[in-house]
Amino acid sequence: MHLAFNKKTEPALSENPKADLEYSKGVEGKGLSLENSEDKIIISGADPSWFSNQKDFSISVWVKASGVSADTTIILSNTDFRKKPMGIYGERRTSKGISLYYCNGAWGWNVGNGMLHYNYEPINEDQPIADKLWHQLVVTFNSKEQEVRLYYDGINKAVLSIGDLKNNTFKSDFPLWIGANKDVSPGYKSFNGTIDELKIWDKTISPEIIKKEIELYTKKKLTEPELKSDILTVVNWNIWHGGTHYTMEKDDFNGIERTIELIQKSEADIVLMQETYGAGSRISSGLGFYYYEASSAIGAVWGANISVMSRFPIEEAYMIEEPSNYGKNYAFNNGGAKIRLSEELSVIVFSNWYSGSKSEDLDSALKAWEDLIINADEVPLIFGGDYNSISHLDDGVGESGHSKLMTGAGFTDVYRSLYPNLETHPGYSFHNTERRIDYIYVKGNKLEPSTLIPIVPGFKGKGELTPGYPSDHLGLVARFRVR
Questions:
Q1: How far apart are CA 469 and CA 439, in angstroms?
Q2: Largest CA distance in the chain
Q3: What CATH number should be reported for the domain holding residue 178?
Q4: Bridge partners of 451?
Q5: Please, what's the b/e burial string for 182-214 (b: 16 or more CB within 10 A of its CB; e: otherwise)?
Q6: Are 356 and 460 in the same domain?
Q7: Which terminal CB of the chain, N or C, has fewer other CB atoms within 10 Å?
Q8: What is d(CA 369, CA 126) in angstroms, rounded to the nearest whole number?
Q9: Is 364 in contact with 323 (CB distance < 8 Å)?
Q10: How large is the average pLDDT for residues 72-95?
């Protein structure tokens, strides 16, 4: 389906009697202005069954906001857009359906199944749509992979694994409409701007199709960043409940903003994050990075535990259904991404969080990714995370078995390989102990460990938190020479 909005009447539009369609200059020809729209404009040709967990689909639209506004307004939706209370998790947009919207100068995406949801909200400084320019927004869904990909101006900025929504479909009973539906979402207005070239497919369109359209309309060749040096910098960090423990009012600094600041100072190329919990799109967008969010039952409520952020494009995502200490669900413990550093070299990275009491969860993940591990000399592997356990390289025992599983699979413990003296380099990483429980492991001959340093100097242990530091875990900054 393609709505070009070049005619006063589009056969696929069913105008609400209250609506008064207005047209203005579009990205090509005319566009549909929603600034004065009083109610929804139903896309009559878009059947509700198109948008569900069982079917592939893609949506592409060009948008231009009239100006920056603090209001959250609706571009496209088929759901009750209002937030619902979720106890300790606050309020979330969990109603069945999908929505594309405007928020504080940028855009947002949400999908819910009545109980759980996934959300992505970049910031105005990174992905604006209120800068008086036209911008292309694309959403694709792959039902086999249970994966949403979100594109801004032809660039795949975010990959969201949403497998935990599959047990209760996100198919809405409503049709897809343009703008706000006051009967379903009272209190919300239509997008304060103009849309054009709305296209809907019953398949997952390729990046090539998206790239071709952006280049056609902008007359510019699309390029993405590549690693230009022979040093790759990787940060691993458990940020402690999404950076929520520190606020300006209480602590004179904001936990999320300080997290972004410290990652920027580290000159990170890739970030492996644990306890991301709702802060992922804000942090990755604040860094100007690409984003991958791994699915989990907890993640679909509060935001993913496991995420990956990258200066360079994400090619593939890796996720398995696995047991965890929260019961059987998707990747609460392990999730990864293949990142294209250049035309010649990619790297596969995994972010991990494991309970310190058992090793079987990690064992199942290593078995699942056995082919990747075997081929690490072709595409190098980095595993980073909070393992909640002491390494056998530190105490000679490693009772949980995590470290023995990693080294047994051929991985190198980066920190201990560089600093083998336990007395001069104990390397503690958690505020309650002077032992290491956070690690970065590497496998593959194309990456050689160079240094591993703390993200801040003077991190305090034994129950004392470092003033001005936003987490109870020490961030690790590893640099690798690219061979």
A1: 19
A2: 77
A3: 2.60.120.200
A4: 479
A5: bebbeebbbbbbbbbbbbbbeebbebeebbebb
A6: yes
A7: C
A8: 34
A9: yes
A10: 91
